[in-house]
C-alpha cells in the first residue's frame, strides 16, 4: 500500500473521529475503532474505548474541536497524531479550551484505530475531574 493512499485513509478517519466526538455520537465513534481498542488519558489511565467515551459524552457538553495539524509517523508509519484545540464544558461548568494531541495507532490496513493516547497538560483542568461521577473503568 502506498503512503499516499494511507494518508488519505488516515485523514478521513481523523475527521470522522472529530465529528463523532463533537456530536457525542458513540456509535459512529466506536465504528472507527477495532473491537478491543483502548484509550489512554492522563487523568483516567487506560480504558476501553466504549467506557471512556461513554463517560466523556455523559460528563462533557458543548464539545468543539479545531484541528491545528495532522502529524504522520516517520518511524512508526501506522501512527498519526492530531493536534487540536478542544473547547468543552465539564459537568455544567463554564467552557474551557485546552490544547490536545490525540496519538492514534492504526490497523495494518489503515481501516480503523487500534488505540488512541490522549496527551494534554492536566494542570489547568485537573480540578474538573477530582470527584467525577461514574468514572470510566
Features:
6 strands; 137 residues
Describe this structure in words.
This protein has 137 residues and is α+β, with helices and mostly antiparallel strands. It is 27% helix and 41% strand. The protein is built from 3 helices and 6 strands. A 6-stranded mixed sheet has the order 2-1-6-5-4-3, covered by helices on one side. The chain starts with a helix and ends in an 18-residue tail after the last strand.
Question: What is the strand and helix layout of this fold?
Answer:
Elements: H1 3-23, H2 26-30, E1 33-41, E2 45-48, H3 49-59, E3 60-72, E4 79-90, E5 96-106, E6 113-119
Parallel strand pairs: 1-6
Antiparallel strand pairs: 1-2, 3-4, 4-5, 5-6
Short structural summary:
This protein is an alpha+beta fold and 137 residues long. The protein is 27% helix and 41% strand.
> Structural class, from secondary structure content?
alpha+beta
Spatial strand sequence of the major β-sheet: 2-1-6-5-4-3
User: Tally the helices: what do you get?
Assistant: 3
Helical percentage: 25-40%
- Quaternary: single chain
Number of strands: 6
Poorly predicted regions? 1-5
Distance between the termini: 37 Å
Which band does the percent of strand residues land in?
Answer: 35-45%
Shape: globular
Give the overall average pLDDT: 86
What's the alpha carbon Rg, rounded to whole Å? 15 Å
For the report, how would you describe the main beta sheet?
A: 6 strands, mixed
Amino acid at each position: 500500500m502506498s503512503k499516499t493512499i494511507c494518508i488519505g485513509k488516515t485523514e478521513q478517519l481523523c475527521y470522522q473521529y472529530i465529528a463523532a466526538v463533537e456530536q457525542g455520537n458513540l456509535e459512529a465513534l466506536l465504528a472507527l475503532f477495532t473491537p478491543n481498542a483502548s484509550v489512554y488519558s492522563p487523568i483516567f489511565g487506560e480504558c476501553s474505548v466504549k467506557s471512556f467515551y461513554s463517560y466523556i459524552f455523559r460528563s462533557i457538553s458543548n464539545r468543539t474541536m479545531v484541528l491545528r495539524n495532522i502529524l504522520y509517523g516517520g518511524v512508526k508509519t501506522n501512527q498519526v497524531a492530531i493536534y487540536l484545540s478542544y473547547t468543552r464544558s465539564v459537568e455544567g461548568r463554564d467552557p474551557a479550551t485546552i490544547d490536545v494531541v490525540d496519538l492514534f495507532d492504526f490497523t495494518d490496513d489503515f481501516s480503523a484505530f487500534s488505540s488512541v493516547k490522549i496527551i494534554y497538560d492536566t494542570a489547568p483542568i485537573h480540578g474538573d475531574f477530582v470527584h467525577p461521577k461514574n468514572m470510566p473503568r
